[in-house]
Amino acid sequence: MLRRVAAASLSLLAPVLALDDDETWRSPWQRRCHGRIDEWASALAAGARAARDQAARLDLLAAQGARGAVVPGPAAPSGPRPSAPPVPAGWGRPPAGPGSTVVGVAFSPERLAELARRLRRAADDAARLAAEVRRIVPALPGDTGGALVVAGPCQGLDQVAAEAPDLADAIAGRLTYAASGGSAGFAGSGGSVMTAASGGRGADVAPTVTGLAASIGADPFRLDLRELSELATRLGQLGPAELRAVVGGLRGRPLEVLAAAVRIAPTRAELRTLGLLPAVLAVGDLLLRGAPASMVAEIARLFPGLEPPVGGRYGPWEYTVGHPPSTGDLTMHDRGRDPLWASGVTPSDVGQGAVGDCYLLAALIGIARADPGLLRRNLRENPNGTVSVTVHLPSGAVPVTVTRSLPVRAGAGQEIAADGDNPAGEPELWAALYEKAYARMAGSYARLEGGDPATAMEYLTGTTAVRRSPSAVTVGELAARLAAGGVVTVVTRSDLPPDSGLVPNHAYAVLGADARTGRVLLCNPWDQTGTDDRLDWHDWDGLEPALGGVQWASTRRGPPAR
Predict the structure, then answer these.
(1) pLDDT tens, residue by residue, 359-383
(2) Burial of 221 by CB count in 10 Å (0-12 exposed, 13-18 middle, 19+ buried)?
(3) Pick from 330, 529, 349, 370: which is nearest to 433 by CA?
(4) Cα–Cα distance, 529 to 351 (Å, whole number)
(5) Three-class secondary structure of residue 217 per DSSP
């Protein structure tokens, strides 16, 4: 089955690649889309190689009659390794003509609409193939072996399943906007040729900008919560390209007045208008994810709470973008050029820094093992470089938008929070940005100190988490939870003996459980080093007295876990 998945992975994007030519991919935005597809093709090729490697490992296990372990090191598969799909002519070349800037771009809307359809089909096929791989985990020799077999083959599949629908939606949105007469950066039947230099901003947004600026006025105290709520509704109804153009038109005094009105809104709320406050306070988040890239820093500075402060024991001051301190040794380091993902989502990507939020990072590690695609789906990269993290509240799922700036110690460049690099030293920001979104919700990084892994699971998965006494849990039950795609964590007691090998008052992710031997595999959220992979097997009977609690949740919506 793994060899069949390898072959299917290599052909997954063939229908998408068949639509590539110089005419389709000419504008800067379209070429960025093209680059994303190129990344997926490379990831799928790497996943196909991993699938064949793992199939060879399983052949060797069967030949040796091994039980409960995976042969270390990749075994060379028989025959040549698969390569990436062939690159069509014109892929990655600059458009014809002098210079590198496209002034006028014409395209076939029918062709791009078909591309969006094929991208969605590719996403569905990728999700189906990844699910097939994960279904064989219980049949493999031990949970650790299953995790090793699944991680590589699924990395490209998970990426396509999570990102291809977003790209299809972006293409469809631009087609819709162009068809309505707006400026989306290209033209087709019924539309005019748009100029890339205009940034997709058409004359039709001018009345909207004028009307909103008039509604905002010059006095923040004149705007009550009802007016702010109506304005938030109007902004929320704009498409991505319209919102970007409108926010750009509000630059300067109108934006400053709006930000001041949002800042003072909580002090002016009355009982009859209290229900409007969440929508009003969400205006900053809406603008941050929809603004032109050149305005991101300005919006983060003007609107309250968009950058979580760093304070408490991390420094004598609290830092917010745009308000540098006069003393202290902390600063915010812009990681805007660094990718969210390097080589797929794996538990080893998560590394705890100086912030005491082991409960959150242990939950992230558990989800990375159980359903890495969920973490990809819940983290969306916006066109302006910001990132929106989906957080599940009791009232429903909401996007929490953050910039790519991370707190570091000035001079040393040492990050105080979750590591923005993976164990190989490659930039990989996804775990640090999940933590930053959580810090935004809490109010600051300092307020992340101490927490409940079960609550973090619920915020991250949208499912109900369960808390159990360690004495009421068996290794067989833990193994069943993990095999079903569950997230499992444990929390240690404060009164541990010095030779326990565990950290007191600390959360660990459970990545494996072997009912036959009665052992569980714990992962410490601390940052991985070159000599410590943070993984240790423990005998459950000896471990149970050292634990204060066990928590688990499912990554799949359905009846609450019991």
Answers:
(1) 999 999 999 999 999 999 999 999 9
(2) exposed
(3) 349
(4) 10
(5) coil
Q: Which pair of structure tokens corresponds to residue 228?
A: 């702010």
Q: Is residue 397 over pLDDT 80?
A: yes
Q: Which residues pair with 390 in a beta bridge?
A: 399
The answer to whether residues 149 and 58 touch, using CB atoms and an 8 Å cutoff, is yes
Q: How confident is the model at residue 226 (pLDDT cuts 50, 70, 90)?
A: very high
Same domain for 353 and 214, yes or no, is: no
3 backbone dihedrals φ, ψ, rounded to 5°: -70, -35
Sheet holding 507-514, edge to edge: 466-468, 547-554, 486-492, 507-514, 519-523, 535-539
SS3 105: strand
Q: Mark whether 117 and 21 lie in a shared domain.
A: yes
Same domain, 184 and 58: yes
Q: Flag the least confident range among 68-77, 129-138, 348-357.
A: 68-77
**C-alpha torsion sign, points 405, 408, 413, 416:** negative
What is the percentage of the chain residues whose pLDDT exceeds 90? Answer: 37
Residues 62 and 177 grouped into a single domain: yes
Clarify whether residues 179 and 270 are in a common domain: no
Tally of CB atoms within 10 A around 81 = 12
Q: Are residues 376 and 496 in the same domain?
A: no
16 band by pLDDT with thresholds 50, 70 and 90 = confident
Total of domains in the chain: 4
Give me the domain span that covers residue 124.
2-68+101-196
Distance CA 384, CA 293 (A): 4
Residue 208 lies in a domain: yes
Asked if 509 and 488 touch (Cβ cutoff 8 Å), the reply is yes
Residue with token string 């699938």:
51
Per DSSP, the three-state class of 492 is: strand
State how far the Cα of 303 lies from the Cα of 262, in Å rounded to an integer. Answer: 7
Q: What is the pLDDT of residues 484-525, one digit of tens each?
A: 999 999 999 999 887 888 999 999 999 999 999 999 999 999
C-beta atoms surrounding 508 within 10 Å: 28
CA angle 242, 247, 249 (to 5 degrees): 95
Could you count the other beta carbons within 10 Å of the beta carbon of residue 356?
Answer: 18
Position 416 in a domain: yes
Per-residue pLDDT reduced to its tens digit, 144-171: 444 455 667 787 888 888 888 878 777 7
Q: Which of 470, 486, 488 is nearest to 542 (CA)?
A: 470
Q: What is the DSSP string of 305-339?
A: TSS--B-GGG-SS-BBTTB--SS-SEEEEE-TTS-
